[in-house]
């Protein structure tokens, strides 16, 4: 493990570095004052750990999926095949429940998760990602280019979700020249690893013709985002995991000052309602068309959406507030937070 995944860099390790808390990669045969487990930690091993306090960082809404769901039934085997688990997990949901019961505290990312997890652990906290690593520039010019640049960012395994707005993109592109920019990896492994890799561009062109893929790089992330005209976050609402995603991506894009149109997941809908932009949380193709038409056609609307979003994260999701959320996790289980260190 090298903590290179965004979920590692932006969660507890980022908090610990900001607070000056030393840490190492945990081994289950050692005793620690505190073990903070990522979502994909070995569930069977760590749910039996008794040599210290345990915090489980459960980011995604796996507990929202019924035990009988076909994907849920296979998830434990899939995690084993990827090397996340030392042994196959036949009852994946049961393993998650045992992990939450064992944990002294669970950290999650949405109100809905908190309500579900509280059935298994009475000490549940919400904390969103820390994004310091990416924000190096902020969008201030909302004039549109030609073609109009719509940007999507994320892991290539999620490119398929753009299909949920295929019809909206085709409708709107008939009125406005559009280029869809994907900020992601150029390739990804196929579902069956020995079949090799697939190009992200090939996947995207099955959804929309006018696509460009830009390699995801930390150093250039802000520049690529701010050079676009509008960001989109389409979500597969039929998938309980993706529909239960937190507001991390919307918050990240807002920090860069770019206007964003999203699917109406509970988290995104709450955030957009909070800034008076509920019309940008879309529930169907007609709403996506209306939202895209509005923002593509109006520099003023784009500037308002980008500015209100940035003001929201600067007011509500400050670094101080996010570090405080993790402080409260530790103090809730009797771990003292260093008072002399608070690097913001």
Write down the overall mean pLDDT: 91
Shape: globular
Structure annotation, total helices: 15
Please bin the fraction of helical residues: 25-40%
How can the largest sheet be summarized? 6 strands, parallel
- Give me the count of strands: 12
Percent of residues in beta strands? 5-15%
Low-pLDDT segments? 340-344
Strand order of the largest sheet: 9-6-5-10-11-12
* Termini separation: 27 Å
Kindly provide the radius of gyration, computed on alpha-carbon positions and rounded to a whole number of angstroms: 21 Å
Q: Which sequence of SSEs, written as H and E, runs from N to C?
A: HHEHEHHEHEEHEEEHEHEHHEHEHHH
Structural class: alpha/beta
Describe this structure in words.
This protein has 344 residues and is α/β, with parallel strands linked by helices. Helices cover 38% and strands 15% of the residues. A 6-stranded parallel sheet has the order 9-6-5-10-11-12, with helices on both faces. Helix 3 links the parallel strand 1 (34-37) and strand 2. The radius of gyration is 21 Å and the shape is globular. The relative contact order is 0.13.
Secondary structure blueprint with pairings:
Layout: H1 6-9, H2 12-19, E1 34-37, H3 43-47, E2 53-57, H4 70-81, H5 92-102, E3 105-108, H6 111-117, E4 124-126, E5 148-153, H7 166-173, E6 178-184, E7 187-189, E8 197-199, H8 200-204, E9 211-215, H9 221-227, E10 230-233, H10 240-243, H11 248-255, E11 260-263, H12 266-274, E12 281-282, H13 285-296, H14 299-315, H15 319-332
